[in-house]
Q: What sequence folds into this?
């Protein structure tokens, strides 16, 4: 592997506070302070003048669909989409077919990751057997098999006793529990946010109180067990408030927000476009503002995409019958820059922090830093590049994006994983 | 005055002028219905497919009859006989119907927004015959047509819609038509079935039956839709009837000349007293008859007809 010399980038490393125009050097997959004259001669030089070089982005919430639903996405295509979006570490959800509730499935994933993935992929395991919410999955065995967290993904554990025991048990292994907060008794048949827009469209509403109830439950259980619960894709203003007050008391709650919940609201669903259907649903402008405020003051720890690929023919249905979810890996950075930096005045280092060190720390991943000795996971992007996103031409196998054909600003030019350039100037590099 | 739309998807998107064009055209067609020979050649040679993927008696029969009165050929497909039971998608079903050279699709579907979805796929006109809890435009048109017949202009008239509003496409279509026509609309029913968000559509919401019915000139009752409800919207049909059912005492609060409407099918003794349903203030059966004329107008206009060809002569040509 050649050494790398990234020159004249604006280097932003939120962990160390570094923000300056300068160079980055990589030898043997690790960040080093400098190159020897000989190394400089042999290094691959990447001219990053005018670009930002930051830690490789970290996404702790993606769906890679393998095994079992490889018509939607694979570990190969999903990890390529990640690389194209500047992500070097991603955490994948266990709702595969079969679900990842046993060590064998995790091992199968790890073998495929080893063979195919172009970025670092960290699997999660289920909380309960079959993701059915009735009995605990073999959490210790899953940990031994290599999961970084447990979650029942979209099937939020409804039984409070079971959730309490899962959290208590997982704490033994220092394993975070991730929860999609949804009281399913409040959301029977629901397909979008409950409110003025659902009333107008005649669609079944998913009230934000269904999220608030479970967020509160998790705050209470986290307090009681003194264990970490990570709240996925917070969408409700009231939930942000509940989390804020819990954190003020020192409760070990962490939480994420998605690019789509900070960028879009339910009022965009006027034509029943299923590329605006996801779970939790897009909410009101007040909720959107609440989430942005939560990211600003640290109530919400990080940005995660909930990248959820579905094929065109699966999404091409009546709104009621289309599956939930949109892809997000290839647009997350541009959307976050637009909404948080340009529209809401966040600093660039802070937004990078929300997409690198903070999510890494939430999941305790060895990522999100550019300090000397760190693995050389690097994202280089041009914050000024205007481009039109063509979801059909993206690396994800699916194209279910609300930003298809939209003008975006800010584009990844190079993605480096363990010192290897995996994506550069619009192209994937072959794995050597 | 000219008609430019190919599809009839919602009343929300229609202008007041367009609603009036349909009403005028329907009025002309209604005259034909009183003749001994009830058929006109307006849609001769055209094939209309009634794709009814959700149960319906009244609407389907009225569309069927309307198409036949216009001399169109009609084929009706219901959920049980369609390939949707074999897993065929709506897109594929509809594209097959188009490939069979149908000239128009009338769609009844449980999913809100499905007529819009079809209209974007197909080249032929799509008529919404009820989509989920979204809209039932021809019902809204025939209801307002019936009200105008009885009351004249609806501007400033006090109209109450009573019952299960949340799940009602009939309510939504009527709300859009009535607000455009300047009526003073109040929605009444249990709070669980009449969410306050409806006020955003330009109507009032009330949970007090007495003040809502006082001096109202129209009360439109809606069926309690057991099939769309989870169990928790109200305690029981009995309690619903005792709190919100229209009985003689409550009907006496209405304006003396008020009419009682219901889109059907009615649950006698639940939302309405049996006697009231059959009483002289009830226009429930006139609504059904008007439903044919209104649907003739909609089929005729969306197939490319113009109101002025029907008006005056009462004898539309193709």
A:
């Amino acid at each position: 592997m050649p050494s790398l010399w990234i020159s004249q980038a604006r280097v932003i490393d939120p962990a160390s506070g570094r923000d300056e125009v300068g160079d980055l050097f990589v030898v043997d997959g690790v960040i080093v302070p400098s190159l020897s004259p000989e190394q400089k001669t042999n290094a691959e030089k990447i001219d990053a003048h005018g670009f930002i070089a930051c830690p490789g982005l970290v996404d702790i919430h993606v769906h890679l669909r393998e095994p079992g639903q490889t018509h939607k996405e694979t570990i190969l295509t999903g990890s390529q989409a990640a690389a194209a979006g500047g992500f070097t570490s991603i955490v994948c959800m266990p709702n595969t077919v079969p679900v990842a509730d046993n060590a064998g499935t995790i091992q199968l994933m790890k073998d495929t990751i080893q063979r195919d993935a172009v970025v670092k992929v960290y699997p999660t395991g289920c909380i309960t057997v079959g993701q059915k919410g009735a009995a605990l999955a073999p959490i210790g065995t899953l940990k031994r098999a290599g999961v970084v967290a447990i979650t029942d993904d979209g099937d939020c554990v409804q039984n409070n006793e079971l959730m309490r025991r899962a959290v208590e048990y997982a704490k033994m292994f220092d394993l975070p529990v991730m929860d999609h907060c949804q009281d399913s008794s409040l959301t029977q048949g629901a397909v979008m946010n409950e409110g003025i827009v659902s009333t107008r469209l005649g669609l079944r509403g998913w009230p934000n109180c269904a999220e608030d109830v479970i967020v509160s439950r998790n705050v209470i259980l986290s307090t009681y067990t003194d264990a970490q619960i990570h709240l996925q894709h917070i969408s409700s203003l009231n939930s942000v408030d509940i989390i804020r007050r819990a954190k003020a008391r020192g409760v070990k709650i962490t939480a994420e927000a998605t690019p789509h919940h900070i960028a879009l609201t339910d009022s965009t669903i006027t034509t029943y476009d299923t590329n605006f259907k996801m779970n939790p649903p897009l909410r009101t402008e007040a909720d959107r503002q609440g989430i942005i405020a939560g990211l600003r003051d640290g109530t919400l720890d990080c940005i995660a995409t909930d990248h959820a690929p579905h094929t065109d023919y699966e999404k091409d249905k009546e709104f009621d019958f289309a599956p939930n979810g949109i892809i997000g890996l290839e647009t997350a950075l541009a959307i976050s820059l637009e909404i948080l930096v340009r529209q809401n005045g966040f600093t660039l280092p802070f937004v990078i922090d929300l997409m690198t060190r903070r999510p890494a720390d939430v999941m305790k991943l060895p990522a999100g830093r550019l300090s000397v000795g760190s693995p050389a996971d690097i994202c280089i992007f041009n914050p000024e590049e205007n481009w039109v996103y063509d979801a059909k031409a993206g690396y994800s196998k699916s194209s279910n994006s609300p930003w298809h054909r939209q003008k975006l600003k800010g584009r990844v030019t190079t993605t480096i994983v363990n010192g290897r350039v995996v994506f550069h100037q619009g192209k994937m590099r072959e794995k050597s | 005055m000219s008609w430019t739309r190919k599809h009839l998807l919602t009343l929300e998107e229609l202008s007041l002028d367009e609603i009036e064009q349909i009403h005028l055209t329907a009025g002309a067609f209604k005259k034909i219905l009183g003749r001994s020979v009830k058929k006109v050649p307006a849609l001769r040679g055209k094939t209309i497919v009634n794709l009814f993927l959700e149960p319906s008696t009244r609407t389907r029969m009225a569309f069927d009859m309307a198409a036949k009165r216009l001399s169109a050929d009609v084929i009706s497909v219901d959920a049980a006989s369609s390939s949707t039971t074999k897993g065929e998608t709506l897109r594929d079903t509809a594209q097959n119907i188009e490939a069979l050279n149908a000239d128009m699709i009338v769609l009844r579907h449980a999913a809100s927004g499905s007529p819009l979805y079809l209209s974007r796929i197909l080249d032929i006109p799509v008529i919404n015959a009820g989509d989920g809890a979204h809209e039932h435009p021809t019902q809204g048109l025939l209801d307002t047509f019936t009200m105008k017949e009885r009351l004249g202009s609806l501007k400033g008239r006090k109209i109450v819609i009573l019952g299960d509003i949340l799940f009602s496409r009939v309510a939504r279509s009527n709300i859009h038509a009535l607000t455009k026509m300047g009526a003073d609309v109040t929605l009444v029913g249990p709070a669980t079935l009449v969410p306050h968000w409806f006020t955003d559509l330009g109507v009032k919401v009330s949970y007090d039956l007495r003040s809502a019915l006082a001096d109202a000139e129209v009360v439109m009752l809606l069926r309690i839709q057991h099939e769309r409800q989870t169990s928790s919207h109200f305690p029981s049909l009995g309690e619903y009837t005792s709190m919100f059912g229209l009985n003689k005492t409550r009907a006496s609060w209405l304006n003396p000349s008020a009419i009682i409407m219901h889109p059907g099918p009615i649950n006698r003794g639940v939302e309405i007293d049996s006697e009231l349903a059959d009483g002289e203030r009830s226009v429930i059966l006139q609504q059904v008859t008007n439903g044919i004329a209104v649907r003739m107008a909609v089929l005729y206009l969306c197939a490319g007809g113009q109101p002025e060809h029907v008006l005056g002569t009462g004898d539309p040509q193709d």
About this structure: Residues 16-135+291-309 of chain B form a domain with the Rossmann fold fold (CATH 3.40.50.1370). The interface with chain A takes residues 12, 89-91, 109-114, 116-117, 131-135, 169, 172, 195, 197-198, 200-201, 230 of chain B (CB under 8 Å).
